[in-house]
Amino acid sequence: MELPKPVESIFYFSGTLVHRAEEEYMRDHVLCHITEGTLSMQDADGENIYGKGTTLLIRKNHLVKCEKRPPVTGGRYQMLFILLGGELLQEYIVSEQLPEPIPGTLAPDPVLVLAPKPALEGLLQSLISYHKNNYAPGPALLNSKLKETIHALLEQGDHLFTWLFKKEKYVKPDLATFMERNFRFNIPISKFAELSGRSISTFQRDFLDIYGMKATTWLRKRRLQAAYQLLQHNSKASDIYLSLGFEDLAHFSRSFKQEFNILPSQVSGKHFLRDKP
């Protein structure tokens, strides 16, 4: 049996500048431990900030904007991330002879704050010590650490078995409600379709029925509308374009000018969306 690739599964991040993750959805379950600094996580329900010493478990396919921040007093942020991919989890089910969970709708807890139980604490400290001592363990040891990670998580309680292994059965939510909650996330249309419980063709058809335009067009217009409203309340373009799903400031400014015939810097109290054609 081919082993998972540990080099692509265990990461230690450190830096002195604020760093925003490029991807805005989790491809795999992610275990994160914050050694120094803070981690901001903004999803459709708002922003949560987690501090030093916190250990989090983030569910696969969760839409979230993550930002690593150094301590306000100075120094470096330091965070450990462990990716728990589907292949690894399936191999664990087989090797431990565990029952296959029945697919279904998952509980509404995409982010869990974990208790500092001995097995988890021991695992984290061993991995952090490798980094501090510039020790590069080989594939066999790292793969054993991935398996140890799952053991440690299951020690947290029976609910973690379902959380980790249950295959999600997507329900088909109301598309308008789903898009209004998630339009700020810069993800492919195919991912919007998947997370809304639809094939791409069904998603596109439903979208046209509801909005009378393509999803790409609606997303651009809805993001720009949200930007206009924020700029009216004295936000700066440089502070909001990433949070609204734009990849760079120049593209945001061009799109804004095309949509409203003014630059973002020209928005003031005398400009209102209701006055725009």
Automatic annotation (TrEMBL):
<dbReference type="GO" id="GO:0003700">
    <property type="term" value="F:DNA-binding transcription factor activity"/>
</dbReference>
<dbReference type="InterPro" id="IPR018060">
    <property type="entry name" value="HTH_AraC"/>
</dbReference>
<dbReference type="GO" id="GO:0043565">
    <property type="term" value="F:sequence-specific DNA binding"/>
</dbReference>
<dbReference type="InterPro" id="IPR054015">
    <property type="entry name" value="ExsA-like_N"/>
</dbReference>
<dbReference type="InterPro" id="IPR050204">
    <property type="entry name" value="AraC_XylS_family_regulators"/>
</dbReference>
<keyword id="KW-0804">Transcription</keyword>
<dbReference type="Pfam" id="PF12833">
    <property type="entry name" value="HTH_18"/>
</dbReference>
<protein>
    <submittedName>
        <fullName>Helix-turn-helix transcriptional regulator</fullName>
    </submittedName>
</protein>
<dbReference type="InterPro" id="IPR009057">
    <property type="entry name" value="Homeodomain-like_sf"/>
</dbReference>
<feature type="domain" description="HTH araC/xylS-type">
    <location>
        <begin position="173"/>
        <end position="270"/>
    </location>
</feature>
<keyword id="KW-0238">DNA-binding</keyword>
<keyword id="KW-0805">Transcription regulation</keyword>
<dbReference type="Pfam" id="PF22200">
    <property type="entry name" value="ExsA_N"/>
</dbReference>
